[in-house]
Amino acid sequence: MPEENQSVDNENKGPILGEEIRRKISEHPCYDKNAQHKFGRIHLAVAPKCNIQCNFCVREFDCVNESRPGVTSKVLSPQEALEKTRQILADYPFIKVVAIAGPGDPLANDETFEAFELIRKEFPEVTLCMSTNGLMLPEKLPDMLRVGVSTLTVTVNAIDPEIQAKIVNHVVYHGKVYRGVEAAEIQIKNQLEGIKAAIDAGIVVKVNTVLIPGINDKHVVEIARKLNELGVYIMNVMPLINQGAFAHLEPPTAEERKAVQEACEPYVMQMRHCRQCRSDAYGLLAQDMSQMSEERRNLIKIQTKEDFEKAKEVLKTNGKEEAEGKKA
């Protein structure tokens, strides 16, 4: 169960984090910009079903040439996910985070929890992470705590139902299809309640917001203000990938995105190093090995082993010097 050592400091506009949570953040490449160069993550594509259809989302299961959310070369069973985790953690010990981010919504798939249970049992030291649209977050939170999820990303594109209704085509909630403002109200209510409950339970929350010019670009700072009230740790303003029903829209420029980030910065820390990863990505953020050749992966494996042996030798030498210093 995640450590219950997180509270909100309203004066300093951010959560107060305990020692164990701070350690996990320092090893999470998405939550700490310095960690992205030292530590990696693995995304396990065990969750194909989704309960929401966003107008910018196209989920592809076999597309090796794209790097974006919703893309994976194969959907894994929980057992396959465990076997892949074993292999990758053995070859690349710098990977500290095991995450499930799709290609659908993890909370709409029982396989998510089956996979996490298997991985936590064998690798209790890794950080378990999840990304979700938040629709089922309030009722699935107990399951998340049971399997040990300690870092969570929720995609929140609007807190105004009129705006959200333009972004989502439909929502499937408890077997019924909702559309328009009614669908948006259900999703926003569950997202905000779920985020607050997750933070109160000790989970560190990151919020992703897709910046959509002409739809929510003037509204994102309002989202940031709400995230500040809830105690969200970090916010990731992501540029629209114009596909699906939004294929005709122009993505924001780098300057437009930067301006929104700067407007949001007073309320919640901004993530500026996102790579909009695939659902089966692994390795460093800037070095997705899921798209590399076997030869390139082997070179990284060799380099990782060499670096690991050097680090052990340095620790051994430093330990001897420290012991000799105490004797003197």
Between the first and last Cα atoms, what is the distance in angstroms? 45 Å
Structurally, the number of domains stands at: 2
Poorly predicted segments: 1-12, 63-67
Mean pLDDT: 83
Instruction: List the secondary-structure elements in sequence, H or E.
Output: EEHEEHEHEHEHEEHEHEHEEEH
Rg (CA only): 20 Å
Structural class based on helices, strands and sheet pairing: alpha/beta
Number of helices: 9
CATH architecture of the largest domain: Alpha-Beta Barrel
Rough shape? globular
Strand content: 15-25%
- Can you tell me the CATH class of the largest domain? Alpha Beta
CATH names the topology of the largest domain as TIM Barrel
- CATH superfamily grouping of the largest domain: Aldolase class I
Number of strands: 14
Helical residue percent band: 25-40%
Q: What oligomeric assembly is this protein in?
A: single chain
List the helices and strands and how they pair.
Blueprint: E1 6-9, E2 14-17, H1 19-26, E3 40-43, E4 52-54, H2 78-91, E5 95-100, H3 110-122, E6 127-132, H4 137-147, E7 149-155, H5 161-167, E8 168-173, E9 176-178, H6 180-200, E10 204-211, H7 220-230, E11 234-239, H8 254-264, E12 269-270, E13 282-284, E14 287-288, H9 294-327
Protein name: FeMo cofactor biosynthesis protein NifB
Organism: Methanosarcina mazei Tuc01
Cofactor: [4Fe-4S] cluster
